[in-house]
Amino acid sequence: MLTSACSTGLGTLLWRHITVQDVAMLYLAGIAVVAGVWGLGPSVLAACLSAICFDFYFTQPYYELLTTEHDWITMGVMFGVAFVLSNLLDRLRSREQRTATLYALARDLSRSSDQERILEAALQHVHQVVQGSSQILLGEDLEPAGAAQALQDRQPVHAGSRWYLPLIGGEERLGVLCIDHVQPNRDQLDLLQHVATQIATALERARLVQAREKAMLAAEAERLRNTLLSSVSHDLRTPLASITGAASSLLDTRGDYTVEARRDLAATIYEEAQRLNRLVTNLLDVTRLQSGTVQLGRQWHSLEELIGTALSRFDDALQQREVGIEVPSALPLVEVDSMLIEQLLGNLIENAIKYTPERSSLEVRARVIENEVRVEVADSGPGLPPGQEERIFEKFQRGTRGAGLGLGLAICRAIAEVHGGSIRAANRPQGGAVFTLVLPRSPTPPTVKAEETP
Amino acid sequence: MSQPTVLCIEDEPQIQRFLRTPLKAHGYHMVEALTGEQGLAMAASEHPDVIILDLGLPDMEGLDLARELRQRSETPIIVLSARGQEIDKVQALDAGADDYLTKPFSIGELLARMRVALRHAAQTQQEPERVIQLGPLKVDLLRRQVTLDGNDVHLTPIEYQLLLTLCRHPGKVLTHRQLLKEVWGPEYVEDTHYLRVYMGQLRHKLELTPARPCYLLTEPGVGYRFAAD
């Protein structure tokens, strides 16, 4: 309406200088703008109003609706052209919108390789095209008869109040897009089919990405398994060699063994068997952690208790050493898998024993720093070779003392990370190495009801 | 008893083999069953004083067998399990087994558990103890007093109750469930954090080095144990 008024105004101003045909052009220009911006409906209205204004103001007799035959024709042509123009512009507009929709959809779908996100984005865009509750059903054999038919015929199917659009990517039938309670016109239906095709392509791509990732993981697991097997052969046979040797010596009836000597052989068997047990445990842990089948049985535990249990496994080896323990009594409980954390601490303690002189001391300290709980296992041995502080956590890294699969620290890191924490190593300024386990401190520790004072 | 009878329900012949010598050397009369069914039969026919049951039997679920044996008699049961079978152990203990051992174990541990189990079985026929003493720690049940080296130790009512429950069964493991039910009540059987907090408190009051306790021992994944002498 505004545009018609503008055109009228403009025409009036220039009346002296231009012919009536030019005024008609002005009106047409106005209608074209309306059609371009607001669409068919408004432009038809503009055409009518323009025609009336034109007739009223610019044709003889002026300020009246009647006019000459010639002017009727002019008006008729103007109206006709306006109408055709509006139509064309409207179609152009909707095609542009459609392209924009498909482009936006393609862009959003290509952003993610995650099936869930793809479906979310897809449904959002579908909703922009047609308002109605929509959902995507995945699978080849689908329950609703309409869905099955849509997949079979590879055509949209209208069943009851629902529309089923098949999602077919390449050759595979992936599912259907179903929309409730809508009556899409031909253009919308056409657009929806294009949307469906894009969704199908995106889903197919997501599946391929997933398959590739799985293949890569499988290859990595295979590689690890092979490395493991070759390591196992050497490292498990060492304690076995000791056990076999010592046991066969005990069975030896010909040699002259003192009671002391026999006792020593028996002790060797016992110690080596315990070492073997730890190795096997580490091996099993790494296999389980790697395959992702470890179900973290998280429960609230006291670190003081876990440290105590880990230390108790080395009671014999620690007899000759001074063990300093510093654990504040108000240390918050941590939500962890106790078996894994004990294994982690045990590995650290075992290393501290293995790589330090026989009677050197050990320290275990725990404390809270802001939102972290830290446990430090420190020794007073030779410390770590400088620059190796990160490398030692890689698999199959062994210290200069050889023994062991070299998995201990790698497992410690895996366990720390699976708990959302971390582990690092450093040399102490006063000598020796310190390993720090960092665990996140829970913002919601469990509450214990205070006792009623008697 | 002259020669206590121990029934070993264990399908691995090597384990039966390594148990024979030390058990005999310690004065036990050993009878062996290789399957669960056989075990049940022998429990009835041999009237053992203590039963050793491997939870990994091929023909029967260890848990069911433990329950069955418990139903039929009061004979103490010690279960053997492998690492990673924590839940089995705990369930077996809650279902009536008296103690457990994780393979591989040392014979010293097994003999200690057996001694404790037999002692408890004998005790239930007698009067309950009135004073429990373990080194410098003394618990007077009648006067509800706890002393360490003669010095009074103040415990809150719950701490005392927890200590009492544990030291009434010296040397025997008590599961989290059992402890929580006994001290706090059946509604608390899932709240293990109570135990963590209170055991920590007790240890700080009674132990020289709370992180390396001598009396109040942790049985990881299972429960707690008051040390036997």
Helix-strand blueprint:
The complex is a heterodimer of chains A (454) and B (229).
Chain A: H1 2-14, H2 20-38, H3 40-58, H4 69-111, H5 115-129, E1 134-138, H6 145-153, E2 157-159, E3 162-169, E4 172-180, H7 186-251, H8 259-291, E5 299-301, H9 303-312, H10 315-318, E6 323-326, E7 334-336, H11 338-354, E8 362-369, E9 372-379, H12 408-418, E10 422-427, E11 433-440
Parallel strand pairs in A: 6-8
Antiparallel strand pairs in A: 1-4, 2-3, 3-4, 5-7, 8-9, 9-11, 10-11
Helix pairs in contact in A: 1-2, 1-3, 2-3, 2-4, 3-4, 4-5, 4-7, 5-7, 7-8, 8-12, 9-11, 11-12
Chain B: E1 5-9, H1 13-25, E2 29-33, H2 36-46, E3 50-54, H3 62-72, E4 77-82, H4 86-94, E5 99-103, H5 107-123, E6 131-134, E7 137-140, E8 145-148, E9 151-152, H6 157-167, E10 173-175, H7 176-183, H8 192-206, E11 216-219, E12 223-226
Helix pairs in contact in B: 2-3, 3-4, 6-8
| Strand line-up across the major sheet of chain B | 2-1-3-4-5
- The neighbouring-strand order within the major sheet of chain A is 6-8-9-11-10
N-C termini distance of chain B: 21 Å
**Shape designation of chain B:** globular
Order of helices and strands of chain B: EHEHEHEHEHEEEEHEHHEE
Compact description:
The complex is a heterodimer of chains A (454) and B (229). By secondary structure, chain A is of the alpha+beta class.
Describe this entry's structure for a reader.
The complex is a heterodimer of chains A (454) and B (229). Chain A has helices at 2-14, 20-38, 40-58, 69-111, 115-129, 145-153, 186-251, 259-291, 303-312, 315-318, 338-354, 408-418, and strands at residues 134-138, 157-159, 162-169, 172-180, 299-301, 323-326, 334-336, 362-369, 372-379, 422-427, 433-440. In chain A, helix 4 runs antiparallel to helix 5 (115-129) and helix 7 packs antiparallel against helix 8. Chain A is elongated, with a radius of gyration of 41 Å. The longest helix of chain A has 66 residues, at 186-251. The model of chain A has no long low-confidence stretch (mean pLDDT 81). With 454 residues, chain A is of the alpha+beta class. In chain B, strands 2-1-3-4-5 form a 5-stranded parallel beta sheet, sandwiched between helices. A 4-stranded antiparallel beta sheet of chain B has the order 6-7-8-9, with helices on one face. The longest helix of chain B has 17 residues, at 107-123. Chain B starts with a strand and ends with a strand. Classes of the chains: A alpha+beta (454), B alpha/beta (229). Chain A binds chain B through residues 270, 273, 277, 281, 284, 299-302, 304-305, 307-309, 311-312, 323, 325, 327, 329, 333, 338-339, 342, 364, 446, 448, 451, 454, and chain B through 83-84, 86, 104, 106, 156-158, 191-194, 196-200, 203-204, 209-213, 218, 220-221.
